Amino acid sequence: MAKYRKNRINDAMTAECAQIVREIKDPRVSGVMITVMNSDVSADLKFAKIYYSVFGECDEKELAKGLKSAVPFVRSQLAQRLNLRITPDLTFVRDEGVKHGAEISKLLREISKDTEPAAEEDEDDDE
Predict the structure, then answer these.
(1) CA-wise closest residue to 5 among 97, 80, 85
(2) Which residues, listed in sequence order, are joined to residue 116 by a DSSP beta bridge?
(3) pLDDT tens digit string along 38-59?
(4) pLDDT tens, 64-100?
(5) What is the CATH number of domain 3-95?
(6) Where do the structural domains in the chain lie, given as residue ranges?
(7) What is the pTM (predicted TM-score) of this model?
């Protein structure tokens, strides 16, 4: 399969899954703000990993169980919305990239706060 076709399928899968996740009525999932970050469909279109991120605090194990139990619903909705020969088996994977980015940003802010007083002292010495 051509790479551009796989990329188009990944993008369509991400967009549709983002909408479908909002429609899940399971209380373990519906009470949490979930963002579908990306999807990765295998070359034979039989398997797909859906990467999601969560805003705020929640019970990660319960959320994972809720998403796992919602897989048949999500697959049926994808089959209706996307015109694919095979609807892939879905696996939801938590994407920790946003969390790591926030931690790195926090560390960089702390480092810049530590170096600012030293930079001001150097400017005072030059005068």
Answers:
(1) 85
(2) none
(3) 999 998 989 999 999 988 788 8
(4) 999 999 999 999 999 999 988 899 999 999 988 777 8
(5) 3.30.300.20
(6) 3-95, 97-127
(7) 0.76
